[in-house]
Amino acid sequence: WDYYDFSQSDAAISEAQFYATRPSVPFSNVSNLVVFVNFSGAQEYVSANRVSYANTNYNTLSASDAIISTGTLRDTVSKLSYGALDVQSVFSGTTATASIVLPQPKGYYQPYSVSNTIGYQTTEQRIVRENEIVNYASAQVSAAIGDNYNLDTNSDGMVDSVSFVFPTTLY
């Protein structure tokens, strides 16, 4: 309902009616590139089991008549687009079970503290370091995947969808 101006009409319409009047998407299939990223000096966290788990969590599609969605990216986009758009995720690292390893340790990308003396100290440093992550990971994955996938469905010269996955630490 992001673009509906309720002040222009007293007539109530359903969400389905609203989206039916929106311009159609010029394509119906999109590949989402999932990039596993890790930090210098950290133990590898990607394995065949984790890639399989990620595939299930990104690509599972519930039955069209299901009342409850699976909550995956593919299922959510399908439901929100009333089945007009299908997003299938492909996974990449340096190999099928390895992540892109950043040139700096995790602390470099976190705030400075007494226990993390290599962290960023200003907003500008944070932004620069976040951009370093995206630029480095993008360059590495570009070299790793080559032209194996159609990641530019609308031919605008840009990857249509990308997800960066980082290791988490449970406390």
Write a structural description.
The protein is an alpha/beta fold and 171 residues long.
Structure, briefly:
The chain has 4 helices and 4 strands.
Produce the secondary structure layout:
Layout: H1 15-20, E1 29-38, H2 48-59, H3 73-80, E2 86-92, E3 100-101, H4 123-145, E4 161-165
Parallel strand pairs: 1-2, 1-3, 1-4
Write the H/E string, N to C. Answer: HEHHEEHE
Shape type: elongated
Distance between the first and last residues' Cα: 39 Å
Query: In which range does the helix fraction lie?
Result: 25-40%
As a percent range, the share of strand residues is 5-15%
Number of helices: 4
Based on helices, strands and strand pairing, what is the structural class?
A: alpha/beta
Strands, count: 4
Gyration radius, rounded: 20 Å
Summed over residues and divided by their number, the pLDDT gives a mean of 81
Give a short account of the largest sheet.
Answer: 4 strands, parallel
Low-confidence stretches: 1-7
Keywords:
single chain; 171 residues; alpha/beta; four-stranded parallel sheet; 4 strands; 29% helix; elongated; disordered N terminus
